[in-house]
Amino acid sequence: MIHNMFNKDLLTQYREPQFKGQHIDLVPSLNIINKEEEYKVKEIQNHRKQGHNMQFLVHWRGYENEQDQ
């Protein structure tokens, strides 16, 4: 069995959309842990280097492909 691991420090906190059309309706119920919403990653679909940082395309468990970030 292969386990994919990534550094959680490379993730950024969710920010509310700033522009019309950026809003995505979140359908599944969320787990709340220590007053924080918890989302589960189903798969890291891709990655790229952006400057000195790595960016990841994440598919969230319980969400449609259109909601990948």
What does this protein look like?
By secondary structure, the chain is mainly beta. It has a domain at 41-69. The protein is built from no helices and 4 strands. The protein has strands at residues 31-33, 36-38, 41-50, 53-60. It has a two-stranded antiparallel ribbon. It has a two-stranded antiparallel ribbon with strand order 3-4. The protein is globular and about 30 Å long. The mean pLDDT is 79.
- Which structural class matches the secondary elements? mainly beta
Instruction: Give the SSE string.
Output: EEEE
What kind of oligomer do you see?
A: single chain
Kindly state the percentage of residues in helix: under 10%
The overall pLDDT, averaged over residues, is 79
Through-space gap between termini: 26 Å
Q: In terms of per-residue confidence, which ranges show pLDDT below 50 for 5 or more consecutive residues?
A: none
Largest sheet: 2 strands, antiparallel
Nearest-angstrom radius of gyration? 13 Å
Strand arrangement across the biggest beta sheet: 1-2
What's the β-strand tally?
4
| Dominant shape | globular
Short description:
With 69 residues, the chain is mainly beta. It has no helices and 4 strands.
